[in-house]
Amino acid sequence: MKIKYIGDSFGVDSLTDGKVYEATEENGMYRVIDDSGEDYLYSKENPAPLDGSSPGGKWEIIEK
User: Fold this and answer.
1) Long-range contacts of 51-54 (CB under 8 A, 24+ apart)
2) What is the per-residue pLDDT for 12?
């Protein structure tokens, strides 16, 4: 599936506002290939860094 991240960009290798990412659903979360080129699990409701350095954002489903 393709999802767009909408919110504050965070990290140089994490998520960028307005960027579309490839993802799969896994255990109630999205496994996303982020800006690092690696896949990580992100919350479906509020993708944000674990250290609290950004308020995070939301996802918009582009293609299932």
Assistant:
1) 53/10, 54/7, 54/8, 54/9, 54/10
2) 82
